[in-house]
Amino acid sequence: MNILFATPECTPYVKTGGLGDVSAALPATLAALGHDVRVLMPAYRGVRVSGEIGDGVELPAWGPWPAAQLVPVKVDSGVTLLLLACPALYQRHGGPYVDASGNDYHDNDMRFGLLSRVAAQLGTAHSPLHGWAADVVHANDWPCGLAPVYLAQARALAPHEPTAVSVMTVHNLAFRGLFPMGSADLLGIPLHWRGLDGVEFWGQLSMLKAGLQFADAITTVSPTYAREIQTEAQGVGLDGLLRARSGRLHGIMNGIDTQAWDPAHDPLLPHRFSRDNLQGKRLCKAALQARCGLPTDPKAMLFAAVSRLTEQKGIDLVLGALPGLLAQGAQLVVLGQGDPTLAQGLRDAAERHPLQVAVTLGFDEGLAHLIEAGADAFLMPSRFEPCGLNQMYSQAYGTPPVVAPAGGLLDSVIDSDADPDHGTGFIMAACDAEGLQEALLRAVRAWNERKRWRRIQANGMARAFGWNESAQRYIEVYRAAIDAASVNGTLPP
Ligand code: ADP
Ligand code: GLC
Fold it and tell me: Crossing angle, helix 18-32 and helix 468-487, to 10 degrees?
């Protein structure tokens, strides 16, 4: 099968969160299963690739967009990376979505409209890659949300030409990709698709809603989140649409890249370890404490978090629980970036308690690995969590997670008090200060019973969080969408 995986971020080129990791590992697994997978991503400023770079394909100026180029790169994983080069739109200081001051780029409609446009075109008979067109266009999150719309448009205009099916994956429903409806003119959205049954969301254009409305299939990144987003409480206004399309909505758990996140072979760690020999983990703890300027005390229980600093991740709850942790003699290490108020709160805590709290503001892949390895327990009190990868990394690294009862956290962590034989972590009874406090105390208690802790660690380290099973499920979704489309007569037999 020819699969075009469209994404705004991909590890190791550009990453702001879990979507970056998924965009590397899922396509690589699909390729290993024998499919021809191409990953389309903007060529942002500073993206460096290693691999065989092919000849760029010119994309002439079209509609509101200037001329661009598609640069194919054969990367090690067996996937072809297609870099969408359009310097006027992508060569910017700042991140993929926001400028250096943290504000959305004013022309994100154009920037991600082009990404979606090109993704769709790669799934038509007019694919700019001569001799290659996608059977499936897999669009990820709001920045790719218009791809299903453009594909539907292509299908409507040329019903007898082969056109790819579209699959829309929701990694985070909270980001709806909202723009003034005026953008619809610019982006060439047909008038009759601008209403409630189309791309309109309370008077605005929602790129995510557009994708959900027009995709042949919808997936999200855990079974529990698939249920949660169909409720009014967690559907952020899109639950009605998701309920209406529930027959085409699938919750497929993310996996983790078990090569990049393997404590026995992780090149980013100063010491390696495995389930059978945790000596290296003890050394990683000392290295982490030293690097963060904390006393290298093996007897201080070390809690950690690596997180985008947003309301979603419940870092304010961690700050609220801090007095309790400090009273237990525990240490806390946080790595994160984002919301300035949360960052300030963390900085203040570290200044007030320099022997127990250490905070690193910024994005640091190496430190993230060291934290997973060196911490005793990992904190993820997320208010909602579509899937979450860190709780899986931490289980693989013998660092039992303390998590909120939400989304993919519920699908990937087993509470060790509820199930002492198989438990891998601690699930809060509720996502509030009290819930976190109670779960932290349970974690401290378990840590003090060495044998019990060792068992919780071993249970987590034995779990198989790889991508194989989930990648197979994506293939099933792709196949079902292709079959349904051909029955409906939208694809040639
Ligand atoms: P989300 O995608 O919502 O941010 P996930 O748990 O799915 O949450 O994925 C987050 C990913 O981003 C993990 O790989 C985590 O290690 C990484 N990450 C988040 N913040 C940082 C940071 N400040 N430095 C390094 N890695 C980070
Ligand atoms: C989003 C979600 C996170 C998920 C990631 C990858 O950023 O917040 O829960 O793991 O996408 O799917």
Answer: 80
- Ligand 2 pocket mutation pick from 254, 312, 413 by most atoms within 8 angstroms of CB: 254
Question: In the predicted model, is pLDDT for residue 489 greater than 60?
Answer: no
Could you tell which of 308, 313, 392 is best to mutate to test the pocket of ligand 1, judged by most ligand atoms within 8 Å of the CB?
Answer: 308
Block residue for tokens 């022309």: 107
Q: Is the CB of 365 under 6 A from ligand 1?
A: yes
List the domain boundaries for the chain: 2-255+469-488, 279-461
Contact 5, 24 (CB under 8 A): no
**Spatial distance between the Cα atoms of 189 and 211, rounded to a whole number of angstroms:** 12
Could you tell which of 23, 171, 410 is best to mutate to test the pocket of ligand 2, judged by most ligand atoms within 8 Å of the CB? Answer: 171
Residues 321-360: tens digit of each pLDDT: 999 999 999 999 999 999 999 999 999 999 999 999 999 9
Q: Which ligand is nearest to the CA of 224?
A: 2
The span from the CA of 151 to the CA of 193, in Å, is 13
Is there an atom of ligand 1 within 6 Å of 263 CB? no
* Preceding peptide of 400 cis, ω within 30°: no
- Which residues does a 6 A CB cutoff place in the pocket of ligand 2? 17-19, 22, 171-172, 221, 254, 385-389, 408
Residues 6+ apart with CB under 8 A from 5: 23, 26, 27, 30, 37, 38, 39, 40, 138, 140
For ligand 1, whether the C-beta of 368 sits within 6 Å is yes
**Rounded CA separation 71/121 (Å):** 15
Instruction: Determine if ligand 1 sits within 6 Å of the CB of residue 385.
Output: no
Considering only CA atoms, which residue is closest to atom 10 of ligand 2? 388
Angle subtended at Cα 202 by Cα 196 and Cα 203, rounded to the nearest 5 degrees: 85
Give the CATH fold of the 2-255+469-488 domain. Rossmann fold (3.40.50)
- Give yes or no for residue 493 having a pLDDT over 50: no
Mean pLDDT of 5-11: 98
CA–CA distance, 392 with 240 (Å, rounded to integer): 31
Q: C-alpha angle 289/423/21, rounded to 5°?
A: 60
Q: How many residues does the chain have?
A: 493
- What pLDDT is stored for residue 50 in this prediction? 86
| CATH code that applies to domain 279-461 | 3.40.50.2000
